[in-house]
Amino acid sequence: MRVPARKGGIVAAVGLALVVSACGGGDDGDNDGGGSASAGGAVSIRGCNPQNLLIPALTQEVCGGDPLDAVFSKLVRYDAETAAPENEIAASIESEDNQTWTITLEDGWTFHDGTPVTAASFVNAWNWGAYGPNAALNSYFYDPIEGFTEVNGEIDDEGNYVDGSATAEAMSGLAVVDDLTFTVQLTSPQSSFPQRLGYIAFAPLPEVFYADVDAFGDKPIGSGPFQLVEWNKEVDIQLTAYDGYQGEVKPHVQDVTFKLYAQDEAAYADLLADNVDVMPQLPASSLTGEQYKSDLGDRYVEREAGLFQSITFAPESVDPAMDNPNLRKAISMAIERDLIVRNIFQGTRAPATGWVSPVVDGYTPDQCGEWCTYDPEQAKELLAESGFTGELTLTTNGDADHHTWTQAVCNSISNALEIECTALTVPLFSTYRDQITEREMPGMFRTGWQMDYPSIENFLAPLYATGAGSNDGDYTNPAFDDLIAQAAQAADPDQAIALYQDAERLLAEDMPAIPLWYETRIAGHSSRVENVQISAFGTTDLLSLSLS
Amino acid sequence: MTDVGYLGAAAEPAPPGRREDEPPSAGPGGAHRRRGKPRSLSRDAWRDLRGNPIFVVSAMVIFILVLMAAFPGWFTAKSPTFCDLNLSRGGPSSEAWFGYDVQGCDVYARTIYGARASILVGVFTTLSVVLIGGLVGMIAGFYGGWVDSTLSRITEIFFGIPLLLGGIVVLLSFPSGADASEWQTIGKVVLTLGVLGWTSLARIMRSTVIQVKHADYVMAARGLGGSAIRILRQHVLPNAVAPVIVYATIVLGVFIVIEATLSYLGIGLQPPVISWGVAINQATEFARQSPHMLLFPGIFLSVTVLAFIMLGDAVRDALDPKLR
Amino acid sequence: MGRYVVRRLLQMVPVVIGTTFVIFAMVWALPGDPFAGKCGDRPCPAPYIAVMTDKFNLDEPIFVQYALYMGNLLQGDFGETFGGVQVMDELQLRYPATLKLALVAIATEILIGITAGILAGLRRGGFADALVLVSTLLVISIPVFVIGYLLQLLLGVKLELFPVTVSAGAPLNELVLPALVLASTSLAYVARLMRANLAENLHADFVRTATAKGLSRGRVVGVHTVRNSLIPVVTFIGADFGALLGGAIVIEGIFNINGVGGLIYGSIRTREGAMVTGAVTVLVIVFLLVNLLVDLLYAVLDPRIRYD
Predict the structure, then answer these.
(1) Which positions in chain B touch A393 (Cβ < 8 Å)?
(2) Has residue B194 been placed in a domain?
(3) Lowest mean pLDDT among A165-169, A275-279, C302-306
(4) What is the pLDDT of residue A258?
């Protein structure tokens, strides 16, 4: 009798770590239209099986997202090092009031099939993604645009979709002015709107997409630096450089192949054997005792990524005992983050001192203040003040690699506070999330957040604003909501950031979620390539990759 | 009576049938070993076993393990649940004979306390598998015809259910919070493995019974008018029991090992229950750097498996009339 | 015999229906919302849930859903996943690798297991016996993923005797190491079972008769005793084949084989009922056919067995 079992956990988030060779020529010399001078050569990257067809509006996970990011250029590109958004297809994105935006495109951009990229390419694509019956997973990205509800459909009071309520196919807030200009009208001011436009959901689509969506999903056609040659299911995804690419930074390799692995360890073994060139995230087993350093020598790079892990408390309606700021602070001060990062994560995490990841503009250290430091004495005092006398539970899903650290966190809490803490698991991630969204999960539970776009707003509003989609603890604070709204309206980006930072500081008082750590990506590469650049999303920058 | 022991037994197999040196009937006078009491299979078996050093050794080992499972406090004064992360993966020392695991818990204490859950899972699962599978296989094999067809088809249905899916359904259908007792959690794992694991044994039992029922002595017994139950018990069972015992003794160890993989997936034993399987799983990741974490629970597991297998072999040899 | 075969084939139908229904029911009836985890840490968009619920009839009672599913299945349509991947395509991609792996594993079990068992059974208490005992013990008591991981490290990465992972298409020569690891526990059992049976049968009457008739020991053992000892072994191997097909997920993961085990595990996690049911249905059919073959083999191996 065989038991199906999984050793290495689910597919690790796959970023492509592309190594950028320093031996290429200057990369800002080729600004004119026409072919890019890629230095040639073929590299392979560890990839994983996309769960959906390769269509921008349907792709939410990295397995599909990484190849798609190479195949599609968008209005904005996030700089690989700083995550700062830079105009790519867009010539300018402007607004007087953060509510009505005028977007003008650069001339000369083409799709891989030769057709031009126009304003209509964007508007039609976004309308398609927003249209309810198309069932696009990324449709919520278009939510701020005026007219979204008519196109997407309505939701009744119980949260169920009202069938047939999508009455329009085009959002009223989008208007094509001419071939290279269009306007976007938002329902409310959003200062961070330009920063979102680099996300895959906002990519333009060529005309052929609408003729046969399924065929397109097998072989997507974009306007990015690489075009898709072939997708061999379960085997690999092959890309080759597009010589009509108009972007400023040109690729330095000719062919990129995503080799699809289901297991980290297998990919790592191949990396050591030089069978794959880049592995964006090394498996946990290689990190122990810094094994990877002796395995790889200097063939690795590391970088903080926009992945944030926290512990959220059950809403008051579910578990009233948890609704106690003193208890929450006591728990937070009882977690020895440094020690856990060192001994459980082998240094691939950075202890969090706030609720925002270091990779975004506006990050300030120590927003959490003393509440996120380890101090068992004070923690015990706070516990006494809180009057809590029960037992604690920390729940996570059992089908990923989390129960080791949840046990460590629970041990830390029970050693410091001298109360019982049990680390529980729920077998399936879907059941786990279901219990949370149905408000049936008591005690504490693990929550992770991967940023959609590099903005401080993305770490605050979707998680802690009243009624927000991912506000699992039902946190509500009018002062916080107020600051968020003001920041969204702020005309001056620096002012917006300051307001967001104020909002973040409010969280320290109520502690709706305990910040734990940010993830650090450690990527490894073969001896054939150099200069691996990890982006703020933990993906590999294909534009800098080259052979050594 | 020859010693049908295990290792070190005579190279030549014992002669078949009844021994020439023993008179066929029990009665007064003559060179009889026994007087008065009629001889039975189980009595003979017990005498065989008592003299078999392999049986004695393995029984003692199992006895110690049972003690360990029942009274772990006798074997260690340390707590298996107190963990200090500062000591993570520390090697063996005078403080901690087996070192520390990745959470900083004492590996020796956890190994001792882990005996209970592991052995209980192994034993109870094997018992249920033998009972269910043995019964189904015996009835199917003996009666044949449509009884056999129905039971075999039912066996095949159960075989088709993946263990992982079954485990998840059992676990989600009987959810337990932090206050679940150890027995509840163990019971759920036993239920999962037992309900889905009996099919192989049923087929093995069925095949042996089919083979045996065509044998002469069974035909003779039926011809003599023996009832089905009597024939099953007296003739079929003792002869069919050998492969079952071999399978049961091996599969006991396999179940303990399978529990390891289930626990890692989160559908097996849940914390705070401790078992060898959980320990081995957590330790494999660090096998290169901290082998002690893997070695000690692994050794205990191997010793347990060895003991049960040896015990099973000795019992099988003693019970099997064909080997006398 | 022919009528027996036809009867068995007909009986396969209710078994397949029964199994698919049980699997189908288990997956679709899992508590909670199947879309709860599909979109990461945030809830899926409502239109998506509505469209998918409608497309896969998730609102209907389970019997209706099952009837619709079976209706499609009988026409050869295995359905598709929530992501639009055709189940049949996926199965066609995955099954060849798993089948090859299982076949090589079975071959290993037969070659090494039966031979070791015969050697051990012939000389009980001898060196071969002790060797078989010790090695089977080691193999059983070490979890398969530990064996796989260590062997991959030692023989693959360090000594480079075997390829570290299996490349696409699963060529047979690359499957030797994974198959060996996969078959290890079963090999142990086959050896021990063979040994026990052989030792037993060496006392049997027909062996005495054969020896008395003057047949050489080799013929007595090889032709007569082994044949009769094989029945439980053949049974086990037949049962094992089915298990190997569906459950080799650990090995598949370690050696990066795109097989059915990983597919089933992944699909259970993501609640893709059509994929799980489809994969298991094929599994069940193959297993039933193998079982039938094994049952027919009984009659060949032991002429005392008749099928009436």
Answers:
(1) 177-178
(2) yes
(3) C302-306
(4) 94
